Each structure stands twice: as structure tokens, then as C-alpha cells.
Amino acid sequence: MIEPIVYKVIIPALAALATGFAGWFYGRRRKKAEADSLVIKNMQNIIEMWQRTALDFNKQYTAISGEMKELREENLKLRKEVDKLMREVSTLKRDNSKLKKELDCISKHQEK
Q: What is the DSSP-derived secondary structure letter of residue 1?
């Protein structure tokens, strides 16, 4: 009497439990492997994004650095030009002052 119960109930129940446990055990490992794979893929995407960002920053830095060099050269050129013009203005002011004195002197002589 026990034999038919063992064959009909207990063995199929144990087989179902064993199958369920094996499915859960290997499914858990597969899910962990999939999660690890997803983490690796995300890390690769992040690395690629940072590499692109770094390259963009490098290009921008190179462009800005070139522009800055050009602006410094232009600034130096303009400073030299301003210095030259300031010297010229100073010379013209001296000449103007001399000419005013001469004009005053001539005007005084003409009035006499």
C-alpha cells in the first residue's frame, strides 16, 4: 500500500521539488550573469561617453588656446600702436605749444 503512494505522490512531488530547486538555482546564476553583463555594458557606455567628452574638451581647448594666442598677439600689436600714437600725440602737443607761443609773439609784434 505504501508503494503505490510512493510511486504516485512522493516521487513525483520530490521530482517537482528537485526540478523547481534546480530551475531556481540555475536561474539565479543566469540572472546574476545577465545583471553583471548589463553592468559591464553600462560601464562601457559610460567610458565611451567620457572619452567623447574628453575629446570634445580637447578640441575646444585647442581651439580656444589658438584663439587666445591670436588675441595676445593682436593685443601686443595694438599696445605698440597705442604707445606709438601716444608718443606722436605728445610730440604734436609740444609742437602745438611752440606754435602757439610763436603765434602769440607774432600777434604781439603786429599790434605794436
A: -
